């Protein structure tokens, strides 16, 4: 059922996933490149995963953004089988949404013993305003391990000291699920860590003298840290060497306002009123029915008496507060003193914890309704209607797509040529930095190191060198290329002709510092002499 719902919410992409894309957003091209790189490098040089061939000669370039190891590994067999990176990306979008909803449904079925509650919670968790407006951010759509973390954490708290063997198994599940979720997204790792800390404060088990429980959690935490350390060290190096730190001014730009919680791209609400507040906002609208069902759980006291619901309520309130970022008193201190907070630029995304809480509490609300109404013959119809309404509130399909016909074959020639490192022209820097994303998609055909790149962060050296190379092919630009180890220049004829004229592009053939390697389908490769 969740596979069918994922198909519905991503339509029309599932009708032709090889060709219908959201490449109109450069983040889609970038994240398509990321999972293609993971699949490539895991197969060839797994210990060099973070040495991505972008921003050459920068080191740890993959750590300039999310590494997305788990989505990349999920899609790797498809990449190895020869499927295009765009097709694999689309399939991973679909899989992320379906698996996330299914995982939450499994957990809520266990917690409430209600199938209706499980399905409603799964829908609100995976198909909400926030995730459905982040099609270009694959890492945000793979949150299928978070519910398992909450489930295992609850079981560890309940079982330790009473059923030791089962507690040990739950500790393994807690650690394993945490690691897998953390390797989907650094943002989610930070939010998940905060959620567990806040959840722990409202669980009475942790305030009793139970040494075995603290030992279990301590050992589990140490094991998680040990496994994640190799994936965190590159970010630490980039922070120290490249200055990748999100300042409070960055946070202030991407902090939420109250209108974010009214913003949704769901067609029903967007057409009615949300179009007035949606543009440029982080969509965090929880849905009318979702809020109503969650309020039932709060009003009936379940949100306080059920320890699992209480955990959700606690971290939901925390996420709501933190989403206001720099506007929240004390956030600047957290950002300055807690390293994990320094990696969070878009503070508004803390609001996803609020949406998770709404999803969980809504499940409890449905369970309360079922207890009161299941004796009536019309209860199954009402349960179906609840699922239908939450689906309709979130539905933004059909999603606007553009057609993609594949990477031009000429870029595959680079893999066969004796090419060291390349600079591609036009070389985009400054405000047009994002236009390099298309070059990265082309790079999946050859994986040659290149200066051109797009990411959530770029080293200062990239901008300096890009500025020096704007005078290409003069002597100073060629000397700068040689000094940095660039052996080739790749030119895209059409945009260069629009800027400089066809005669200027043709005149490069006679340039003493360049040797023509090939020209094909509007792409020209020169060797730097």
Summed up, what is this model?
By secondary structure, this protein is mainly alpha-helical.
Task: Explain what this protein looks like in three dimensions.
With 529 residues, the chain is mostly helical. Helix content is 56%, strand content 5%. The protein has 24 helices and six strands. It has helices spanning 2-9, 26-44, 69-80, 85-112, 115-126, 138-141, 146-159, 164-182, 186-201, 211-242, 248-253, 267-272, 288-299, 302-305, 307-322, 331-337, 351-373, 379-394, 413-416, 437-443, 460-468, 475-483, 493-500, 502-507, and strands at residues 20-21, 402-403, 422-425, 488-492, 514-520, 523-528. The strands form two sheets. A four-stranded mixed beta sheet has the order 3-4-6-5. Strands 1-2 form a two-stranded antiparallel ribbon. A hairpin with a 2-residue loop joins strand 5 (514-520) and strand 6 (523-528). The longest helix is centred in the middle third of the chain and has 32 residues, at 211-242.
In angstroms, what separates the terminal alpha carbons? 60 Å
Helix and strand sequence: HEHHHHHHHHHHHHHHHHHEHEHHHEHHEE
Low-pLDDT residue intervals, each spanning 5 or more residues: none
| Residue-averaged pLDDT | 93
Strands, count: 6
Q: Report strand %.
A: under 5%
Overall geometry: elongated
């Amino acid at each position: 059922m969740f596979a069918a719902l994922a198909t519905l919410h991503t339509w029309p992409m599932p009708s032709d996933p090889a060709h219908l894309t959201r490449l109109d957003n450069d983040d889609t091209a970038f994240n398509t490149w990321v999972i293609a790189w993971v699949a490539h490098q895991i197969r060839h040089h797994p210990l060099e995963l973070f040495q991505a061939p972008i921003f050459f000669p920068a080191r740890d370039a993959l750590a300039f953004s999310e590494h997305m190891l788990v989505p990349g590994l999920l899609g790797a067999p498809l990449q190895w089988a020869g499927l295009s990176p765009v097709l694999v990306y689309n399939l991973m979008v679909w899989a992320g949404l379906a698996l996330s909803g299914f995982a939450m449904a499994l957990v809520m079925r266990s917690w409430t013993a209600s199938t209706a509650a499980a399905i409603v919670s799964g829908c609100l968790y995976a198909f909400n305003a926030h995730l459905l407006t982040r099609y270009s951010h694959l890492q945000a759509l793979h949150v299928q391990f978070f519910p398992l973390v909450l489930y295992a954490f609850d079981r560890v708290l309940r079982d330790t000291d009473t059923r030791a063997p089962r507690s040990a198994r739950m500790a393994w599940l807690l650690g394993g699920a945490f690691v897998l979720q953390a390797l989907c997204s650094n943002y989610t790792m930070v939010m998940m860590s905060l959620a567990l800390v806040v959840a722990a404060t409202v669980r009475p088990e942790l305030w009793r003298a139970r040494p075995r429980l603290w030992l279990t959690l301590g050992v589990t935490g140490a094991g998680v840290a040990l496994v994640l350390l190799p994936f965190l060290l590159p970010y630490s190096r980039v922070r120290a060497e490249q200055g990748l730190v999100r300042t409070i001014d960055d946070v202030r730009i991407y902090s939420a306002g109250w209108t974010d919680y009214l913003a949704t791209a769901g067609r029903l609400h967007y057409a009615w009123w949300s179009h007035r507040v949606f543009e440029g906002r982080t969509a965090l609208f929880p849905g009318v029915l979702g809020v109503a069902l969650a309020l039932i759980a709060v009003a009936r006291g379940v949100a306080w008496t059920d320890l699992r619901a209480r955990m959700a309520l606690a971290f939901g309130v925390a996420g709501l507060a933190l989403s206001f970022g720099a506007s929240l008193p004390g956030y600047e201190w957290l950002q300055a003193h807690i390293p994990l907070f320094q990696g969070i630029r878009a503070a508004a995304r803390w609001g996803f914890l609020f949406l998770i809480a709404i999803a969980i509490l809504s499940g409890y609300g449905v369970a309360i309704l079922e207890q009161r109404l299941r004796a009536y013959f019309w209860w199954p119809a009402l349960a179906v209607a609840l699922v239908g309404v939450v689906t309709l509130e979130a539905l933004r399909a059909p999603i606007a797509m553009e057609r993609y016909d594949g990477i031009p074959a000429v870029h595959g020639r680079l893999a066969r040529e004796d090419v060291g490192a390349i600079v591609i022209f036009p070389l985009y820097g400054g405000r047009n930095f994002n236009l390099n994303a298309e070059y990265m998609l082309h790079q999946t055909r050859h994986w040659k190191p290149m200066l051109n790149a797009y990411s959530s962060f770029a080293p200062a050296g990239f901008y300096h060198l890009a500025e020096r190379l704007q005078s290409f092919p003069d002597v100073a630009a060629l000397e700068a290329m040689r000094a940095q180890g660039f052996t080739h220049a790749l030119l895209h004829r059409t945009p260069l002709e629009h800027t400089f004229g066809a005669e200027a592009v043709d005149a490069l053939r006679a340039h003493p510092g360049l040797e023509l390697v090939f020209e094909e389908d509007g792409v020209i490769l020169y060797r730097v002499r």
